[in-house]
Amino acid sequence: MVLWIGVDDTDSLQGMCTTFLATEIVRDLTEDFDLIGYPRLVRLNPNIPWKTRGNGAVCMRFGEGVGRPFVVGSIAGRPIQAYSRGRTISEQAAVADRIAPLVERWSRFDDSTTNPGFAVLRGQPTPTLYWRAVRGVVSKRSAKASARGLGVVRSYKNGRGLIGALAAIAWRPRDRTYEILTYRALEAWSTERRIAPESVIRMDHDFPSTFNNYDYANDRAVIAPRSPCPILFGIRGDDPAVLPAAMSIIDGERPERWLIFETNQGTDDHVMSRASPRPHLTVRLEGDVSSLPRVLAGGHVVVRVGPIDITAYEPSKQFRSVVRNLLPGDRVIAMGAVRASPATLNLEKLCVVSAVSVVRKVSNPLCPACGKRTKSLGRSAGFRCPRCRTLVPRDAARWEAVERPLAPGWYEPPVGSRRHLSMPIKRMLRSSHTALPVHVGLAAQAREALLRDLRGTSPMPLGTGLLNSEARDPETGL
Ligand code: ATP
Fold first, then answer.
1. If DSSP states are collapsed to H, E and C, what string results for the chain?
2. Domain ranges across the chain
3. 301 alpha carbon to ligand 1 midpoint, in Å?
4. Which protein residue has the closest C-alpha to ligand 1 atom 7?
5. N or C: which end of the chain has fewer CB within 10 A?
6. What is the CATH number assigned to the segment(s) 271-355+405-452?
7. Residue % of the chain over a pLDDT of 90
């Protein structure tokens, strides 16, 4: 058993970052104790309205290390080592007294939404606390109750930070990724970051176990935040051993310190598979598309699936073309956060399970009696010869298949528009989470061709797989 430390809600949009405070705690406590395992960066429910940015909390373990240490960071030129296992230390109150001045020094108390909290526990609260905090809304009272008898909790202002601090300690990874976070020297905070984009592309190619580095669709490196926080950049990946080498490839401003965090980023832990869509939840639902897509002011694209509208918002950029290309009858799996107003699912990922086939009428049939071209009797009726009045069934017409630009498989927004917790499709494939193919965009030309074919038409009833060009003009033909 070791001491578990959790901290949250110390930063504001104007500066700081709780992970920087974690490096300060690590720097101080490793003078006297051993770090056990990687420090943890635990993302919680991304739909919490009172989060600052990415709803991240941190957790660190300290004890007396057992076995061989490994390097997990460097702070002000000093290597930081951790042990995979540790014996307990009893100085719980003393450790809390050491952490308090660090929390007080670095927290942005000037911001009304910053409500720090930290805990020093002998063990982990129930795992249920983590699952409730990553998927739902937790009260401070129930979070505190789950830590009763486990040690010291301290909070400032309204103390809401305790929820995240305790939930971060409660995390038992079912799936995990890592992020090497690098930090700027104090005098550089709030100045523009210098990072060479070509070096990010090189690193992305050389280290395939990393992810979310470069947004190729929009030609931009996404490893650096755009806020005035102390972070220089972060590289996410599945293999912590390669992250220091990946970091060293990045050209530009040199970090003052770095630390590797074990995280729940990119795990989809926030997604509920069997929940009905309710505000503040992120759900996965499977159903049939039942409307044509609509483009709203601002460029958002909406389509109806089962009981709810699903929306690809403007920031999801090229991903919107996937939704624009859906047709009634397509079967999809949609993942996203439920918004109360407007009531919709804010899409994070979409899988086209099956796409209806679309056919277009090429010509009306010839009359079998006199050879004259027949005339249509309407959308779902057959044909009649204008000369001898012979009736001809509907399926006697010549039809051809229209190629759909939307192949079955998974689609996701470009790298720069993803949520921290969303599992990138690259990881889904690696960990065999999907057997379906993956597409990141659509051929614009194919899309335009389809739209030309379908312009002005209305959908066929579900399940027929037929889109009738006569819906616009019953007398179309040759
Ligand atoms: P950053 O990512 O920049 O560190 P943040 O987005 O994590 O900032 P915080 O400032 O930590 O935002 O604010 C989030 C607040 O919400 C914290 O007080 C945290 O304890 C609380 N919180 C997190 N998850 C939940 C939840 N599921 N239910 C209730 N409160 C939560």
1. CCEEEEEECCCECCECCHHHHHHHHHHHHCCCCEEECCCEEEECCCCCCCCCCCCEEEEEEEEEEECCCEEEEEECCEEEEEECEEECCCCHHHHHHHHHHHHHHHCCCCCCCCCCEEEEECCCCCHHHHHHHHHCCCCHHHHHHHCCCCEEEEECCCCCHHHHHHHHHHCCCCCCEEEEEEECCHHHCCCCCCECHHHHHHHHHHCCCEECCEECCCCEECCCCCCCCCEEEEEEECCHHHHHHHHHHCCECCCCEEEEEEECCCCCCCEECCCCCCCCCEEEEEEEECCCCEECCCCCEEEEECCEEEEECHHHHHHHHHHHCCCCCCEEEEEEEEECCCCEEEEEEEEEEECCCEEEEEECCECCCCCCECEECCCCCCEECCCCCCEECHHHCEEEEECCCCCCEEECCCHHHCCCCCCCHHHHHHCCCCCCCEECCCCHHHHHHHHHHHCCCCCCCCCCCCCCHHHCCCCCCC
2. 3-170, 177-263, 271-355+405-452, 360-401
3. 29
4. 55
5. C
6. 2.40.50.1010
7. 81
Between the CA of 269 and the centroid of ligand 1 the distance, in Å, is: 16
Q: How far does residue 431's CA lie from ligand 1's centre (Å)?
A: 29
pLDDT at 420 over 80: yes
Whether residue 433 is predicted with pLDDT greater than 70 in this model: the reply is: no
Classify 3-170 by CATH class: alpha beta
Check if 3-170 and 177-263 are the same fold: no
> Which residue's alpha carbon is nearest to atom 11 within ligand 1?
9
